[in-house]
Structures
1.
Amino acid sequence: MSCWETVADYGLRSIGIGERLLPREGYTLCQQFTLIGSGMIWNIYFGVLALCSGFFLATAVALGKASKNPVLRKASAWFIFLFRGSPLFIQFFFAYFLFLSLKPISPIFDPFTSAWLGALIVLFLNTAAYSGEIFYGALQSVPRGDIEAADAYGMSGWSRFKRVTWPTMLRLAWPAYTNEAIFLFHATTLVYFSGFPAWQQRGDALYYASFFADKTFNPFIPYPILAFYFILLTLCIISLFGLINRRLNRHLPQEARTKMKLKLNIIR
Amino acid sequence: MKFILLGTAALVITASVAFAGSHSVVRMGTEGAYPPYNFINDSGEVDGFERELGDELCARAELTCEWVTNEWDSIIPNLVSGNYDTIIAGMSITDERDEVIDFTQNYTQPDPSTYLALDGTDVDFDGGVIAAQANTIQAAFIAASGATLVEFATPDETIAAVRSGEADAVLADDAYLRPIAEENADLVVLDKQELIGGGVGMGVRESDTELKDKFNAAIQSMKDDGTLNALLAKWEIGPGF
Amino acid sequence: MFSFCVDPASLDDLAWMACYLTTGKHMAIYTSVFTVLLLLAITAPTALAFGFLGASSARSHFAPLSWFGKAYIAVVRGVPDIAFFLFFVIALDQLFEWIRHEVKCPDWTDSIWQGNDFVVCDIAKLPLGNSPQWVHETYGFMLAVLTFAIVFGAFAANVLYGAMRAVPHNQLETAESYGMTRRQVFWRILVPQMWVFALPGLSNLWMVLIKATPLLFLLGVEDIVYWARELGGAKTARFTDYPHGDWRMWYFLALLVFYLLFTRISEIVLDKVMRKLTHGQATLAGDAQRKAA
């Protein structure tokens, strides 16, 4: 069997397209690359969706923590503390448990015990808490002059937030947010490892890597392949976030831009 | 690599013979999470059928043995890498494994795998949802059958899945499931059995023929004088020899 | 543990619980708390040292060294820690044994790979095959510390690298104009000042490190999450005197409290350190402190 056939058979195996059975012999490099790569679909799915949806909640939580309303402030602070203070392992465990006990109440909750939705919710809340803290820190360091200038232009409320506070906050938070994005993608490997069951042998990259490690009894091939894929993914994230960073800072003079970047590396 | 102190004094079985050669101490690797084969008892020590068997084998082969526990997933890589000298962890002898390590003769008859389900459910073996522990021969078996496989990281979770209705039944070794069904009125072991595993043997490095021969001889002597059958009966593991 | 624990089945709830929580197996989970704390205490400075080496070599003017530092940071940061842990400890162990093998048994003719087996001469084994159990354990523990330090060292290197670049450049130039050598500038000007810039990132890293401890069981150290799983799983009366249902929920709840408390305490301590460090520094926070005083 040529490698192309293997790719055709197993390239989309993780989402249930292609061969029903996983390979049972050979375990060639080609098979390992294909299946682990196929599992990456899930890592990217979890990472991208959680990051995109988490972004909005993170903004809300950051504003909540900075707000004057004590109820909002306490609630946001506790949300951040709870999710930043506990290992993802434990969050997955409790979420799965909760979703299971919700299941008998109504069939609406049926999909929640599957990884594609249940784990996504946990990752969404988790990244919202981490990014929320980053955004809160950035919000605290928005220069007062910027706000005063906005006031002087007669902006207030929503338009001031949209045009001045928010873009500045993002710009300040961006380097730390890039790190958080990398961590989040790495965290997606925990979904099938500890949290949620794998159905019909459809799993993420780590699931297939450990499948091969178990079949070949040799951890030195599948896990480095997994590492290779993740290094590629990380490089993509870094360059994509770098592009956005350039856009966020495009109005600054060249020198200030680099300076900004240096300083901001340190804000979490 | 899992080196845990499990009550040092109780662990070391001192054979009175001064043993020259490569194995002054034989390190026995087990999992410690698979009753009745091996588990950690209340006082935190390795216990179970294989603990008793292993101690007896070491005494007969005049070896000094020490017990260590290791994660199931990396139990073979750590053996070939030399972190312990034998695997004695309810490991079925399969062709795949035999290519990488050597096995002694089997010390249990092949243990059939059975299904555990909620009392009164009608399990559809060709279209239903069957749970199994990830990376086991049972998981591979279900994947190849018509049923929908759902895999969990630990055996505990597979049982919990049957209870919660996530899976219709769980497939695992009979010796593991039976005590659970006996203690829980709501769970039953179904009549249908699958013969997928071979017998259980001790795993040793392929280069370690000396140790393999010693244990083979010890197992044979236990088979011959009936002590092995007595142990199997005591821990209720399959038929005797 | 207690004298009345002989027949647990006959005890009332409270006494049963007291006996249950003091079995030898429960002692293991209490010990594992200290193991985890000890590991964190050793890993943090080691990782910081790795980070410091990584960052200073990435900054080096000697190109290969700088590439090495940058590659270390980029590669290790790019890989999920869990993937690293799954194969790295065995690799590290084999590397050490191979080095010892080359040194101690130069006239060994066989290959160290015999089929699938990794075989070194007996005196090169780490630890020696006949050494007592605690030596094996300590060695396993040290390997875990080293692996953790290598992984988190890369993150620390990234933070320190950023912090070194954040120290105002004019200060370094001023120092040079005073006739300091490059080495003197590095040690006397750059290093003392970079900490204040590095601390937020480092404290974040500390939080991440705390929360990575559940992965310790992959490295062969039995941590609290491992024991919580083992103890919490349903137990049948045949194999224990204390049968119970699926209690993982309660064990994990206890772990949740432990981790939240640990995080909170860390936050408070790190805040204090930060306040100390910013004192007198030419940063916004330092200015604020001056004004407040």
2.
Amino acid sequence: MLNLVRSGAEGGEFVPPSAKDFELPPIFGDNAFTTKPIFLVFFSVIVISVFFIASSRKAAVVPSKLQFAGESIYSFVRNDLARDVIGHEFLRFVPYLFTLFTFILVNNLFGIIPLIQFPAMSHVGFAYVLALFTFFVFHYVGIKKQGAFKYIKEIMFMPGVPKAAYILITPLEILTFFLVRPLTLSLRLFANMFAGHLLLLVFILGGEHLAQGAIGLKLISPLAFGIGIVLTFFEFMVQCLQAYIFTLLTALYIAGALADEH
Amino acid sequence: MTDNRANKRDENALWTIFGYLLSGLLFWGGVGWALDKWLGTTYCTLIGLLVGMGGALYLVWLRFGRE
């Protein structure tokens, strides 16, 4: 079982976890589209759908526990993220923000759920795609609202600045809006998930390796496992926070695109 | 609620500032680096980085410091 997940750990020598541990082999033959992260992403969609359909199917005035859980998450995204940030036009963005939040959250949480234990977002490709969606959404919203010309002009030329200064700052505005924003959005999520998973690997695989060593090392092993468990709870916090921050920044970018002036 | 909203504004300011600083260094540093390559000099990258930093700080001031 371990061989399936981790190659090169045989032979007694401790192989420190590295980026190689994120390249899982295809499950069916050589097809690169059947790796674990891809199945996890599909699985997360099923989990989310089943959960929210089940929690809203028998909606009642006095909610059941399940309905309460579902509604808490929904109202958190709707009120705390969408309404507070975007303002009076928030309602049409709730579906997107809600999907984004639950999708990222569940995929992140897969990183610490026993037997699954792999955050799909630790592959940068998934994070890129999500950031690309947000990128298109907030630019589309801005262009639709203000017209393409005015929207671009608004980004490029901040009012009330001496003309000569535009040479200095206009490239920076363009770079920030069209490259740095989506890039930081995706890299923040990816790097947090990647580093978190690596950290857990270090302590848990290290603990396992120590347990197979000499008697002195065996005594340290529980300590490594203990730290691994503490870090798992820490990871839980990071995973929730990253899902929140991705959604929050998406909402902020949409709010910025909707505003008439920055 | 107001506290909550102020937190989100801070979050926005934080990442906007970070983005400006990053693009300042990338763009003007990149321009300086390209000039160095082209002219065979060594100091343009440094000047570019400084100009980028200055431009980014100016932009931060324009956006957040003027009120």
3.
Amino acid sequence: MSKAKGEYKVEVKNLTKYFGDLHVLDDISFNIKEGEFICVVGPTGCGKTTFLNLLTKIYEPTKGNLFIDGEPADPKKHNLSFVFQEPSSFPWLTVEENLRFGLEIKNVDKAEIDERVESIISLLGLERFRNSYPHQLSTSMAQRIIIGRAFVTDPDLLLMDEPYGQMDVKLRFYLEDEVIRLWQELGSTVVFITHNTEEAVYLAEKILILTNKPATIKEEVIVDLPRPRDVTSPEFVEIRKYVTDQIKWW
Amino acid sequence: MIKDKMKNMNEEEKRRYRLERLYKILPVISIFLLILLWSTVAAKSDFPSPKETCDRLMLLFENPIKGKNIFGHTAESLIRISIALLFNWTFGIAFGILIGWNKKAKALFTPLFNGFRAVPPLAWIPLITIWFGTGEFSKIMIVIFGSLASVVVNTQAGMLNVDQLYIDVGTSFNANERQKLFQIAIPSALDAIFAGIRTSTSAAWMVVLAAEMLGSESGVGFLIVRGMDAMDMPLVLAAMIVIGLVGALLAIITQYLERLMCPWTRVESN
């Protein structure tokens, strides 16, 4: 175990999940390096969300386990953060209070909260809106609060479940750039679930392609294109086409 | 001046401007019409006219009933509902949170509470009178019984309707049960709780009149009974109008309080 400790931030070993007789996940194993950005793609209904819920320990796996820094993942000890698909900022809190929320729940020192929240506010360019309520903001602005709220806790593992599924193309590009910026700035380890292959190739350092149910990892694709990535470049298109084919072909 | 304002507007804006002016004028017209109707009817019958009613109200300042003018009696009634509401808001909200949040408490108390809620507060009057007499305590008890249910029902509904997503966000930050209750569930139910505060206030104002009409020495309900006993209809009408005004004022105050406490429910118009 001590050998793995330096090498990988997160190790997923033989993750298997049955719901009764329904076999949802089959023997999934992979590793995530510290500060890595991973995208998980797969056909609709293949168990992406189950996969994510196992990582957050909302569900217990039937078999296998998840290790963070070589220890079994424990939400009490490790700092896991989750960005939901739906807009989940709290309407009764201002932008700033929303950003402070996770840190306050975790009883972080007040001076530390001030400092971290300030830096995330300036990173997201939310200075003008710090005292606004989410309903006063646009959908994209509200989604940025949620993403800020997740990044600000400096998580060991940040899980994002199709956070831009509902957005139009222009906004999505904009917010994808923002996530990359935050990730580069803060060095978080991110698992990003999406069904959009373009999004996956744009964001990820490594793409995990899941098969149909029972889902297992069909392939890991390394994306080593320089950033900022150009979605129209031949290399990009080639990888994107490859990933798409892998999802389509059984 | 209005002409000047309208000069630069197109047809659509002019139409909207006229409509908005109409909406401001219509309420005034309806009040004016009521007073007109009232005066006409009063002139042709024994019914007291608006002027007589107004005079009777003024007379109360010169000739107080039981040592109090209209402000004194209104204050008496307001003190009674304040005590009752303070009790209801404290215990009603706490109880509503309990049966909205804790499934076991809900199963345990719901049947009893539904039974209690179905009994009109006035039905308690005989029991309360026998137990506690006709003193101040009994009146406050009646008001408590009459306005408790709306606080509890609204609070419980608010707690039952907490969006699961918000709770999941708490789970994802590893919040404990206490944090989920106090930092997520209760704040998200606050607008429902305030709906309960508003309805309980208007309910209390109605019930206090009934309580005061049954053997009391003060309060606006007492003024109505006194007017009835003495066949002093201007006094009855004067009391009714004051009751209506104070009731409307209470509604405005609680609404203002809600905006102050729940600023996020305010819809911005930009």
